[in-house]
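Protocol step 6 of 9: fold each sequence in the batch and record its structure tokens directly after the sequence line. For illustration, a two-sequence batch is reproduced in full.

Sequence one:
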Amino acid sequence: MERVFLVVIARKNFERLRAPAQMEELTELAHTCGGNAVGTRICYIEKPNSNFYMGKGQVEQVKLAALQSKVRSVIFNVDLSPTQTRNLENLFKVKILDRTRLILDIFSRHARSSDGKIQVELAQLIYLKPRLSQLWEEFSRLGGGIGTRGPGEQKLEIDRRRITTRIAKLKDQLEDLRTHRHLVRESRKRKQFEIVAIVGYTNAGKSTLLNALSEGDRVLVQDKMFATLDPTTRRIPMDDGSQVLVTDTVGFIENLPSQLMEAFKATLEEIKEADLIMHVMDVSDDDVERKFNVTQKILLDLGVVEDQVFLVGNKVDLCATVERKENIHKKHHHVLFVSALNKTGLDAVKNEIKKRLARAFES
């Protein structure tokens, strides 16, 4: 695994309180990407510095710590501008990765289907294009004269045109994908298949829950963030002999990069068009409430109606105390507690699906 140094930058008061949790999440992201965090540093700032994001004194401290740790990369939990990235790389003499680039790399590693690969490539190119553009603008500001024309300028312009052309082509392919998914959904409706989408913060155990409910083909399960990118649909047998289609979707994360939101529109539509949405949260996680709120906000941004959603608290077997479970129940009265790993509480989930779908059909 690659030796990496992690830096969390916190600004306002609420960010300072959440800094340890942000470091934990950044560590998980780095691990998922094949990184071994051999050093960490939390830096508190009043406002971002245009050159390095953090203050010069903090930059020197991080540089020294990273040098002593003999790392190949330094990873930040914030999004850096092209100028900040270049300045830090020139100073540190190692790779500098910001949060979006790290998440894009994870998505690239986990994309399996052709659809997933198209969406990830589009997100990567959207991320890369403005960085090429800024390099081009800085080169152009040198003006005319000796040393300001030639292959360097031409290559940047050619690269920018190629990226623009490729983005347009990928968007056309995704439009075809969106049309195909729409036709599949319409076909399911004609056959009177009811569809339930599983959503939740990444690594909440959605795929494990789908496996437990379906009792059929196994969906990939890994204790890593964003292990599932491509929507996976399975038939769930109900007690009355009927079947419901349940779709596992890509996991959410706080401040999901805009590039991914744009590229994964076709996939996210699977959520919006579902008859019912099962919001899965990891009740053993100390940060469960923040992650619950993040998921709820994304659902709201997608235009999901509140009546479409019901809540499932997974990993109840890992709850440290009974008090934690009771506190969660006080905040979320209708939560259904399950252990997807131990296959407990599944009957209650199926009954809730059946009841809510019947109610939706009557209305």
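Sequence two, same batch, same settings:
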Amino acid sequence: MLHMDTIDKLVLFLCCILIALMQPFTELQVVSAIISSIALGLISWFDSHQYRTIIATSFVILCFFYSHLCIFIPVILYGCFEKKMSYWVCLGLLPLLLTDAPPASTRIIILVLALISVLFKIRTIRLEELRTQYQTLFDTAREISFRLNLQNQELLEKQDEDIRIATLNERNRIAREIHDNVGHQLSRALLQVGALLTIHKEIPQLLSIKDTLSQSMDNIRNSVHNLYDTSIDLNAQIESIVKNFHFCDTELNMGFETVPEPNIKYALIAIVKEALVNVTKHSDATCVRLSFIEHPAFYQIIICDNGKATDSRHENGIGLKNISQRAEALKGHFLIRTQNGFELFITIPKERKYERFNN
């Protein structure tokens, strides 16, 4: 689709050609058409109004010497017209007023066509301004819409996170209440039954009651442990530990896609605490990077700092021994690297029954 400015120039140039054809044919008419087309092309090529003014001024001066060029003044006026130079552009009509050629009737037609060309250009400038404003408004609306969608997504994610945290807190509360109330009552009942059995050893009903209470106690204990285990948010715990670590800068990369088993959660939290304490006590690091990477068969934890790898950092260190024991208790591996700073490399396998590490 042709641009409106191009269409206007083409229409005005054809109108000038028709006016030229109405005059007696001479070779100068062809030369005038060529010169005018060249001048119009140069005016359209240059964006600077200074160059356009120079070209238009040169064309107007030529009009005083070659009157046939006056026929193409309207299209030249259209090409160089600008709002801030509207009065100066009108000086381009001087050749029509100060020369005797072309004839008076033709000059009137050219003057009318020049006025039309100026009106066309004003209309085209206004349309271009409206088009620019529309594009600006359209881009602004798209940006606002994008930001609103992004903010809405963040709000939804925050709501989901708040609901999840509230659910975990409620699980903790229920577990505590069961442990503090029902658990204590069952424990008291077991003690009372045990006291009765001491006095009345041969009553089978008391033995049955004791077995039932013991089984109920075990079930409640397992339920409380399950509630508490599922309520531990590993990501939130690690982020909280890192946030409260002020010894140096930290970089955290949580790449776990699945939720580890409760015993692995406890171990990872303890390992991170031990590693950061080791940095605080024995390192001159300015940055610590913690990476949690999940593989199909195992979890991988890398804790690396840019401090010096001195012998005192990994010899006779209780913290590092605790980390090693926790990894071994989960059938995992623990490795220290000192090529680039000081790095703890821990791998823990998945989907096995692990023995718990009790510190």
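Proceed to step 7 once all outputs are recorded. Observation for sequence two: The chain has three domains: 4-129, 157-230, 234-349.
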